[in-house]
């Protein structure tokens, strides 16, 4: 199995401890930025120049929808960003639980070339699918 659990090595920096602090900081700064400074956020340069959305287009509107509890609307504006935001809740719960209870940490070690490339291919596929969705959304609107 590429996933395994082990105790922290003495002196090792706990990624879980850092993430249990940084993820809520990201929620707060992202939420405050979108809710209070929305009109100051720059427009997407690619969309402005070409009329073609980038994979991140709709992220601000998606965050705004999430901040108001409109999850369906958030998915419509940017599905990958919405999944990332909602997934960050699960990651935070996992990291905070692991860090505070000092239980063994979860790590990934690829045993094969396929195991090393599968997560990367998944990220690339998610970005491409999200970009195609954004293109479709812009054509449909
Ligand atoms: Zn964009």
Outline the structure in words.
It is a single chain. The chain has one domain. The N and C termini lie far apart (45 Å). It has six helices and two strands. A two-stranded antiparallel ribbon has the order 1-2. The relative contact order is 0.17. It is mostly helical. The protein is 67% helix and 6% strand. The model has no long low-confidence stretch (mean pLDDT 94). Bound molecules: zinc ion. The site of zinc ion has 7 residues, from α2. Zinc ion binds next to α2.
Q: Topology, please?
A:
Elements (H helix, E strand, L loop, with lengths): L2 E4 L8 H22 L8 H6 L8 H9 L3 H7 L1 H23 L3 E4 L4 H28 L1
Antiparallel strand pairs: 1-2
Helix pairs in contact: 1-3, 1-5, 3-4, 3-5, 4-5
The structure holds zinc ion.
